[in-house]
Amino acid sequence: MSIERTLAPWQPQVLSVLRFIAGLEILQHGTAKILHFPAVPQFANVQIGSLMGIGGLIELIGGALMVLGLFTRPTAFILCGFTAVAYFMVHASKSFFPVLNGGELAVLYCFVFLYIFAAGPGPWSIDAARGRS
């Protein structure tokens, strides 16, 4: 039996796990900026109305929705664009190469959320339970 046939039945569940973990990872950026947990020194004085504060709200709300698998496709679309903009605004001006400008995570998030936008939430989600995947 090939590895592809062994693992293929698990693809939908692994998609749900990817969505959940990506949501948790982006959510922690939002909690650090908005709720100051965990305490990150560079986010200590983030104002809600600032660009970083608005980004934190997008991360907080979008991350929570991703974790739950609720409104997954539109949320993934927004987070894909958000992380692309974050890359170009924060990282790209430092260097062309993500490894040199610290933007590897922003690029990876962008394409993970693009994939989730295209593939949907997976079976372990509120969207799937509501029949809206």
TrEMBL record:
Bilayer-crossing regions: 48-68, 75-93, 105-126
A cellular-component GO term for this protein: plasma membrane
Membrane topology according to the record: Multi-pass membrane protein
Keyword Membrane among record annotations: yes
Classification via Pfam families: DoxX (PF07681)
Superkingdom: Bacteria
Family that this chain belongs to: Belongs to the DoxX family.
Record protein name field: DoxX
Species: Afipia felis
